[in-house]
Amino acid sequence: MPSRLPKLSIVLVALPTMLALGIWLGGHPRWLPDPIADVLLGDDSARVVSEGLDLVEDRYYRSIDASTLANSALNGALKKLDDRFSAYLTPGQYGLFRQSVNNSFSGVGLGIRGVARGLRVQIVYPMSPARRADIRAGDIITALNGTSIKGVPVEAATARIKGPAHTEVTLTVLRGRRQLSKRVTRERIDTPIVASEIRRANKRPVVHIALSTFAADTADDQVAAAIRRAKRRNVKGIVLDLRNNGGGLITQAQKIASMFLPDGAIVTTRGRAVAQRTLRALGQPIAGTLPTVVLVNGDTASASEIVAGALQDRKRALLVGTRTFGKGVFQEVLPLSNGGALDITVGQYFLPSGRNLGGAGTKPGSGLKPEVRARDNPMTPHRDEALAKALDTLAKQL
């Protein structure tokens, strides 16, 4: 019987060649017949994008790495959405972002939000490296270590400010028309999420509770603890301070609003690819019927607006301050196979009255309008005029 070994050898030799050819064709789909390319790439639009990137990689006068092209293509696509809340995070940026979220890195003690030129400082925490470097609320950070952050996703820029303890980062800061350079040494930062203090309104004890973020899982626990401590001291009312609070987790907004509302809707979320759901009060509000006012300003946004808006819609609290930011959309961070991620707007949220605080599409809207207007004067650092107005407003309800 003739030997089959020569045929087997031919097959073994051919397999690597066929595998290499398959990989090459998968990365160069313009060489494939249309039916096969359509199966691999889907519709015509996806095929054209892949074909165009393939041509640039192969024919451009200088060599460009395929991953660089893919990053640029995704960046361009996200920028074309004209959505300040959506961005592509490269693998490096997403890695830094995950480390910063997991508290693997230290920081300088700032609360920030994104603006067109970079990052606007909203809060400088006491006893922080940023405070010692004389960085102030209202400053705009435009560069990190000499590299501009204009157009860099907020999550990525924030992650770059963070880093290992005892390392330095140089912040380029705009203060009015002045440009300043601040070299700051990172430290482990215990961000004060909640601060509370007993004050007087019409000579009666009330509690002032300031909440800096909804991003921490413990925010609701800390607010609840502050309310319980105040009730043991027989306070007669609550000032919930959400100024400069840029929001965070919607579940935290639900829990904190539930401390003031016994039942009913708090917020409804809707999106094209996410199921509609209504988050409702969880019952047993620990604040009971204590008179409450909520302090807000133009940097009160997202989850903060959900809480303030729900309490306003349900006639549970008066708002004092200035109009809020007007963010009516929410985002999800969606990991990609290359190690990067898309941080994209996936839906809108609606208050109990049905109103959405955003503008057209993803543009900021009119926000929440306070019943009592008040503004803090930055020229009087030792006096908080807006808080004084909130205490006066609360006194009238006691």
Name the descriptors.
11 helices, six-stranded antiparallel β-sheet, single chain, 24% strand, globular, Pdz3 Domain, 3 domains, 2-enoyl-CoA Hydratase, Chain A, domain 1, 398 residues, alpha+beta, disordered N terminus, six-stranded mixed β-sheet
Structure overview:
There is one protein chain. This protein is α+β, with helices and mostly antiparallel strands. It has three domains: 5-64, no CATH class; 105-185, Roll (Pdz3 Domain), CATH 2.30.42; 194-395, 2-enoyl-CoA Hydratase, Chain A, domain 1 (Alpha-Beta Complex). 32% of the residues lie in helices and 24% in strands. It has eleven helices and 17 strands. It has helices spanning 5-27, 34-41, 44-59, 66-80, 91-101, 129-132, 154-161, 219-232, 250-257, 303-313, 385-395; strands at 87-89, 110-115, 118-124, 140-144, 147-148, 168-175, 178-185, 194-201, 204-211, 238-241, 265-270, 277-280, 292-296, 318-321, 329-335, 341-350, 372-373. Strands 2, 3, 4, 5, 6 and 7 form a six-stranded antiparallel β-sheet that branches. Strands 8-9-10-13-14-17 form a six-stranded mixed β-sheet, sandwiched between helices. The protein is globular.
